[in-house]
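Study this fold:
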Amino acid sequence: MTATENGAPAAVLAIDAGNSKTDLAIIGHDGTVRGTARGDGFRPHQLGAAAAIKGLVPLVAKAAAEAGLPALGNGALVEHVSACLANADLPLEQRLLTQAIDAQGWGRTSEVVNDTFALLRAGGEDSRGIAVVCGAGINCAGMLPDGRTATFAAVGHISGDWGGGGGLWQEAMWWAARAEDGRGDETRLRVALPDHFDLPSMGALIEAVHLGVLRPEQCHEMTPVLFEVAESGDRIAADIVRHQAHEIVSLALVAMRRLDVLDEPIDVLLGGGVLTAGHPLLMGSIESELHRSAPYAVTRVVTAPPVIGAGLLGLDRINASDAARETLRSSQRR
């Protein structure tokens, strides 16, 4: 059975494009995954919307070939393109990205939302919950079945954000540098961070980062080191981790207040590399702080691929059957 059975296009092209990687899936009307592809991170704020979407063309072509679809340019591949994209934070960004996707002609219809909604739909049994992503960056979204949502600008420091893997390693370096030159308290980070790269001192690490000797993806390796030092009992490192927990809880609580569900049972779905790593100090701090202000909220770490959530959102849009949704969900359990 091909994805173009009886001449009809496949149901959904699901796109989950994050800061560090992009996953695509072509999904049939019965909910089966017919083709997939994976690529690098998605950065339209650096490349521009049109160029960023154009960069997905080889991935779409790969997934389409695997699904048995015609070559690109021979009509719509799918009924609907469900694109959950990092750095699609502002309404203007979402409009420009939607226009860029429509210009490719991949689907008869399309919708662009922030990638946080992919996590929310992947982890929730229905369209109700709060999702907090803490990966390279940090973001949050809430959704209720009546269509109400709660979102954040989430464009970094200028929109009030703190943390995520990209921010945590820099915070760790900040404290370690001050410990080395005497401006700050002593912390084991001062030794652990340069040791990770076989460098003799924080001075050498600062030089390697500043001059680009260490690539950005290598710098992110300092975030797990931070958590290891925190778990060993280092006060400075532990305070950074607790600060991250506080930021995660703050996002969730604000979303709950906006949706007026603070005093109701609701799932708080946690995803992204920092959270799925399951660091005990971070997760314990989140649980205890959230429970104090939202005693009915239940946290759940989502390990399902967010592209499944993008696919479910797409199946929702075309009013697919419950059986199709369950088939797609079950594919992540195999």
Observations:
- Residues 125-301 form a domain with the Nucleotidyltransferase; domain 5 fold (CATH 3.30.420.40).
- The radius of gyration is 21 Å.
- The longest strand covers residues 10-17.
